[in-house]
Amino acid sequence: MRGGRVSGKAGGGLALSVIALGAALALFDSTYPAGAADRRSSGGGVFVSEMNDVQRVKVVVNKSRTFKVDTAFATIVAGSPDIVDVKSHRITKHFKPRDIGAVSTVAWSPDGKQLAFSGQKGGLSDLYLYDIGTGTIRQLMSDRFADMQPAWSPDGKSIAFVTDRAATSDSAAKGSDFDRLRYSRLRLAIVDVASGQIRVLDGYPNAKHINPQYSADGKSLYFVSDLGGFTDIYRVAIETGATFRVTHSATGVSGVTATSPAIAVARENGRLLFSVFDKAGFHISALPAERAQGEPVATRKGRPIADDQMDGNGQPRDTVTTPSEKSAAILPADGHGVPSAISAYLEDSDTGLPADSSFSDKSYRTGFRLAGLGQPSVGIGSSSVFGTQFSGGASAYFTDMLGNQSIGVGVQASGQLRDIGGQLLYINSANRWNWGLSASRTPYVYAYGGLTNAGAQYVFQHIAIDNLSAIAQYPLSQTRRIEFSTGYTHYGYSVQTATQGFNGGTSGLTDLAAPPGLGLTSASVAFVGDASSFGFTSPISGSRYRFEVSPTIGTLDYQTVLIDYRKYMFMKPFTLAVRGMHYGLYGKDSETDRIGALYVGDGSLVRGYSYNSYTNADCTSAGTGGLATSSCPQFDRLVGSRLALANAELRIPLFGTSSFGLIASPLPPIEIAPFVDAGVAWTKASGPVWDFTSTSGDRTPVVSTGIASRINLFGFAVFEVYYAHPFQRPGRSGVWGFMLQPGW
């Protein structure tokens, strides 16, 4: 570059594009060599803001690169500012500004007592001051203009920032017109911290002005502009408005996006640090203060903006840069002196707007419209007992225009009228408190049969679960929430029998005596977190958890406790997944036969011990201890009122995309997962016995290992097949299993 052209070879890597390295972390050291511009490559960085202090320590940046900086810095984590002690690497203060949705570009005041930042409230960005000592927040402006990228003056009396508001009335730099949807290019402004008075610098009407940084003496502002179509660094004298071009980079001084910060200035020595895109990567370059004065920029009429063509030190200049009438950022004309039609369309903000800018206001009325249909199902069956029967189901989802309220409805029909079920669900998410109401009927039919003297007798047990419930959720953050629910559930039973004679004739259905119904009132409270990221077939990173307590009263009294925690450690492209879970029924009626027992050998819990895989051959030893009366302790130890389990998987994406998969393939994504499962079930009277021998006849834990494979069926479902070796099943070398569900 003229006045300090970048030279030398640089490495690759991602730029510290957020170079708000925050006033670039003062990555400048007093031992940093002076002279020509120096270039350093960086492999990534954090969004921080420096704090002046005489003590020097180190901060670790991505890819283990270290730079000398001051004792503390402010950074943004998940949209909230943190203050980090660099020496101890600990967060010393975290604050989340109330009613401010997003925070960006934190700037530390020279005295270290305040933080300036750009915050969004209601979709509008303004500047705020945070007092570190008192914790109070002051809003510097409140309007519809964009205000961002604050930078403190060395004396702490003013803050330079980027805005789209208008400059002086006689300036060509007009601000955004919100009535006509005409938005201005970004320019520089200065706000007086004490009075809040704003002064907008004139700048250039057709160029952006971003990332202001004060010079060490506070008399000039460095900024990034695309004047002429190339993004370079400029310097403007605050008092006179004289503008100087500092760099002439062929590839542009920039961050990752068009408005990303890309420069920083050391407060003590004025060294300029900036990010340059070159050779398909971002690189950090530097200029000492004496080489960063720049050359004067002339107006389009040829009059130098700098008075008497003087440089920043008051000395005559040899050259004056005149902006070309042709900008590299604008499409060329058609060759006949006619401006580009595309450029004209891009600049035209009026076409398409209504002629009358006044609109009549009407109150919003909720109206539900169909938003989606569930996958319909239909079935047909025939038997010699019941003849031909049909079944089917359908569901629909309705919502209002804003998505604040929704209604879901589903119907499932099968067999007789008593076997028709459905659900009606209403959800209101207009406020932070989300709540809903649900009414449902869920039918189940169980059948079994046997031979009698009259022929084959069939018994059909119908269970209808009718439920009315209310639910509420309160999100604590984007990943954590508290859930509440309460409701009434009725279990109704009916029993029918039919006999088919040896001659093939059927007697028809006859009602039998049925158990009395159950009426249960329940409530629950749960703390839920989900910060996981899902791959093609299962979660691959982050964590999930649910801690829930649910008491139930009525015909039966008991309590349900659930503790479920899952962690996914991503090691591209592999994932190590672990899970620990406890689910139990407690209380007076927790082990009544009318509730049913828990089974730890389900394929979604501990693989290799599925219910349907057991035969009499698995009952190899007599029961002992708590299972002394059991004729098959190998099966009965899997059943209880409480269970605990642990799982571990190494998830390997075999087929996937080039960025996530060992083999890039157009085939459906396939995951291979070696696993280890362990679990134990117990009751109030029969606790777990920690004996892992395979021949034990007591209530011991069960362990299995094997390999699972999951395939994504074109986004419709995830199919899993596994082969497990169960250690507590003597004589069984392996068990195959199948499931239609994503990985846990």
Structure report:
By secondary structure, the chain is mainly β. The chain has three helices and 45 strands. The longest helix is centred in the middle third of the chain and has 7 residues. The N terminus is likely disordered.
Q: What is the helix fraction of residues, given as a range?
A: under 10%
The whole-number mean of residue pLDDT values reads 81
- By oligomeric state, this entry counts as single chain
How far apart are the first and last residues' alpha carbons, in Å? 56 Å
What is the fold-level CATH name, i.e. the topology of the domain at 554-744? Porin
- Number of contiguous helices: 3
Can you name the CATH architecture of the domain at 554-744?
Answer: Beta Barrel
Strand content: over 45%
- Supply Rg: 36 Å
Coarse shape: elongated
The class by helix and strand makeup works out as: mainly beta
Number-wise, the strands total: 45
What's the CATH class of the domain at 554-744, please? Mainly Beta
Fourth-tier CATH superfamily name of the domain at 554-744: membrane protein fhac: a member of the omp85/tpsb transporter family
> Which stretches are poorly predicted, pLDDT < 50 over at least 5 residues?
1-70, 300-320
Query: What profile does the largest beta sheet have?
Result: 20 strands, mixed
Spell out the blueprint of helices and strands.
Blueprint: H1 19-22, E1 38-41, E2 48-49, E3 57-61, E4 65-69, E5 72-77, E6 80-85, E7 90-94, E8 102-108, E9 114-121, E10 124-131, E11 137-139, E12 147-152, E13 158-163, E14 187-192, E15 198-200, E16 209-214, E17 220-225, E18 232-237, E19 243-245, E20 263-265, E21 272-278, E22 281-287, E23 295-296, H2 341-347, E24 369-373, E25 377-383, E26 387-399, E27 405-414, E28 421-428, E29 434-452, E30 455-475, E31 480-500, E32 510-512, E33 518-530, E34 533-534, E35 539-554, E36 558-571, E37 574-586, E38 598-599, H3 633-636, E39 639-640, E40 642-656, E41 663-664, E42 670-682, E43 702-712, E44 718-726, E45 735-740
Parallel strand pairs: 40-41
Antiparallel strand pairs: 1-22, 2-5, 3-4, 5-6, 6-7, 8-9, 9-10, 10-11, 12-13, 13-14, 14-15, 16-17, 17-18, 18-19, 19-23, 20-21, 21-22, 24-26, 25-26, 26-27, 27-28, 28-29, 29-30, 30-31, 31-32, 31-33, 33-35, 34-35, 35-36, 36-37, 37-40, 38-39, 40-42, 42-43, 43-44, 44-45
